[in-house]
TrEMBL record:
<protein>
    <recommendedName>
        <fullName>Flavin-containing monooxygenase</fullName>
        <ecNumber>1.-.-.-</ecNumber>
    </recommendedName>
</protein>
<keyword id="KW-0521">NADP</keyword>
<keyword id="KW-0285">Flavoprotein</keyword>
<keyword id="KW-0503">Monooxygenase</keyword>
<dbReference type="InterPro" id="IPR020946">
    <property type="entry name" value="Flavin_mOase-like"/>
</dbReference>
<comment type="similarity">
    <text>Belongs to the FMO family.</text>
</comment>
<dbReference type="GO" id="GO:0050661">
    <property type="term" value="F:NADP binding"/>
</dbReference>
<keyword id="KW-0274">FAD</keyword>
<dbReference type="GO" id="GO:0004499">
    <property type="term" value="F:N,N-dimethylaniline monooxygenase activity"/>
</dbReference>
<dbReference type="InterPro" id="IPR036188">
    <property type="entry name" value="FAD/NAD-bd_sf"/>
</dbReference>
<keyword id="KW-0560">Oxidoreductase</keyword>
<dbReference type="GO" id="GO:0050660">
    <property type="term" value="F:flavin adenine dinucleotide binding"/>
</dbReference>
<dbReference type="Pfam" id="PF00743">
    <property type="entry name" value="FMO-like"/>
</dbReference>
<dbReference type="InterPro" id="IPR050346">
    <property type="entry name" value="FMO-like"/>
</dbReference>
<dbReference type="InterPro" id="IPR000960">
    <property type="entry name" value="Flavin_mOase"/>
</dbReference>
Length: 518
């Protein structure tokens, strides 16, 4: 009998999962809570553009149209591109829009039985004759209407940077409730139409909390709306290596970090003795590359002048997938005084505004925008009804989410997660993973024992801890995209070496175009 695959989410990852499962003869059903495709790209702030250069954020078999000439397309261009992809591969017919999955429940084996398994799902296979997932879905237009589906395999593509905001915690009476102005999250701001957002901040003393991409973009928009008359204050706790462009000192960044040579400079999960030796010998070069990029960023953005030189290395930023592009002219706004950068390791609210820990003065403000990120882990955990799966999906508090090949939890059968673990070019990463999942579903290869998968996830965790510092929980493949893809290729029976000739293989950057065909 035909196996039923359910995909939850129709963002970039869900579309890819749909396309590749269809290519293997499945007829997946895609549940999407919203009424359109595109996920995070549906609601963004006005200045949001692709941060990844277009060629690296591209479907391997569906290039950007010639009409998009920009290297960093805007929100509408990205959405159009995703729409064209969905139409081209006839994916829309699989999607159930306005249908939110409330929870998924595994049926077929007891918790005790599952704990005794040595192979994924008990048999090492993606499907089982008795194991099923029960998917409870709600019609978001009519919340009284829920439906239950029984499926053989679930691919979770629910995204990490939406829906569940990360709101800082405060002692009693020192949180937003103490403040007489408005407090919103960047998600609320992004959900407004551009013009409404502009009107909303106009004439207000705005404080933005956070110093990553959303924070910088929103601060930029506020400073454009209000100028020096009502400067936008940015409350940050960590300086970051935001990139002004991808050409430090004229050298394209991919030549420093996205080729095989650059990967020789870092220790890799599962490496042999020779590679380990090479990584140790080349460590000084790794440091030199990082300093090379840092010196360029420092100079271009005048970071020393503004007291914004980060304490960690660029390599650490890259390995944590924290790379964000700085909006053009951001530090000009700082210089002219329409953006004020204020370090605040910890803060609380009072009636008139914000108090930075250890300081007496109140930072008076009318509106606080918390650009403090999202709780993607909570979303992932809450989709499971079973307490056992809720506990194991996130791993221990001092490890990254333990997914084999960043897709499969060894102890959760008949299920894959796509798009949780990040990279510096997420579309391409999700595409490789979806191809791998499709081959797994098609029985091209089998997964090893649960113990082997757990050991592999541990090795990746150690790698993250070594190179990402305090951001290791961010789950990401960091600066090892090629090494990671090599593992997927080997599993699928593809040649991992995709270039012509020794020097090209060693020095040319890798990207989606290298994986067009198996
Ligand atoms: C504003 C913004 C810009 C970004 N820019 C870049 C960039 O330039 N380069 C880059 O590499 N990455 C970027 N990213 C990272 C981005 O998350 C990925 O590139 C990618 O778009 C994520 O796709 P996804 O499908 O995994 O998740 P999402 O886009 O988050 O899609 C998840 C989908 O699942 C749906 N969903 C969630 N829960 C349920 C449920 N219970 N039931 C039904 N449906 C559900 C959601 O409605 C959503 O449509 C950006 C992220 C943001 C927020
Ligand atoms: N393409 C685009 O233009 C675009 C636009 C927006 C977002 N994005 C992407 O979307 C994702 C989410 O971005 P994001 O900016 O929302 O989140 P983020 O990258 O997770 O950054 C969160 C920021 O909030 C700070 N923060 C978190 N908790 C805090 C607390 N309790 N107190 C004070 N500060 C706190 C963090 O500080 P620390 O650094 O000290 O932890 C960090 O500066 C990222 O992948 C980003 O690249 C892309």
């Amino acid at each position: 009998m035909e196996k039923q695959v359910a995909i939850i989410g129709a963002g970039v990852s869900g579309l890819l999962a749909c396309k590749y499962t269809v290519s293997k003869g499945f007829n997946p059903i895609v549940f999407e809570a919203r009424n359109s495709i595109g996920g995070v790209w549906i609601n963004t702030v006005e200045t949001t553009k692709l941060q990844t250069p277009k060629p690296a954020y591209q479907f391997s078999d569906f290039p950007w149209p010639d009409s998009v000439t920009e290297l960093f397309p805007n929100q509408y261009q990205v959405l159009d591109y995703l729409q064209s992809y969905a139409h081209h591969f006839d994916l829309l017919k699989h999607i159930k829009f306005s249908t939110k999955v409330l929870g998924i429940k595994y049926q077929g084996a007891s918790d005790e039985e599952m704990q005794s398994w040595s192979l994924w799902g008990g048999n090492g296979e993606p499907f089982s004759s008795r194991g099923k997932w029960i998917v409870e879905a709600q019609d978001t237009q009519n919340q009284h209407s829920t439906e239950v589906y029984q499926v053989d395999f679930v691919i979770l593509c629910i995204g990490r940077f939406s829906d569940v905001p990360n709101i800082p915690e405060f002692p009693p009476d020192k949180g937003p409730e103490a403040f007489h102005g408005d407090v919103i999250h960047s998600m609320d701001y992004a959900n407004m139409d551009y013009e409404i957002a502009r009107d909303f901040v106009r004439g207000k003393r705005v404080t933005v909390v956070g110093f990553q991409k959303f924070a910088m973009d929103i601060a930029m928009e506020c400073s454009i709306a209000n100028g020096v008359e009502h400067p936008c204050r940015v409350l940050y706790r960590t300086e970051h290596w935001h990139v002004p462009d991808y050409n430090p000192w004229g050298v394209p960044l991919p030549y420093l970090y996205l080729n095989r040579f650059s990967e020789l400079m870092v220790h890799k999960p599962g490496e042999g003795l020779l590679l380990s030796l090479l990584a140790t010998i080349l460590a000084p070069l790794r440091l030199a590359f990082s300093k090379f990029v840092e010196s360029d960023i420092k100079k271009k953005l005048r970071l020393a002048k503004f007291g914004m030189v980060p304490k960690h290395s660029f390599l650490q930023e890259l390995n944590s997938c924290l790379i964000a592009t700085v909006p053009q002219g951001f530090y000009d706004k700082v210089e002219e005084g329409s953006i004020i950068l204020k370090k605040a390791p910890s803060f609380s609210f009072c009636k008139e505004g914000i108090k930075v820990q250890g300081e007496d003065t109140t930072l008076e403000t009318d509106l606080v925008i918390l650009a403090t990120g999202f709780k993607g882990e909570k979303k992932l955990k809450d989709i499971f009804e079973s307490k056992m799966f809720q506990d194991c999906i996130l791993g221990s508090p001092d490890s990254a989410v333990p997914l084999c090949r960043e897709c499969i939890h060894p102890r959760i059968p008949q299920l894959a997660v796509i798009g949780f673990s990040e990279s510096v070019a997420n579309l391409y990463t999700s595409e490789m993973r979806c191809r791998w999942i499709a081959e797994l579903l098609d029985s091209t290869f089998k997964l090893p024992s649960i113990k082997t998968m757990e050991k592999d996830a541990e090795k990746w965790d150690q790698y993250l801890k070594q190179y990402s510092g305090r951001y290791y929980r961010r789950s990401c493949i960091g600066a090892l995209h090629i090494w990671y893809n090599d593992q997927l290729c080997k599993d699928m029976g593809w040649n991992p070496k995709r270039k012509q000739g020794f020097f090209a293989e060693l020095f040319e950057p890798y990207g989606p175009a290298d994986y067009v065909s198996p």
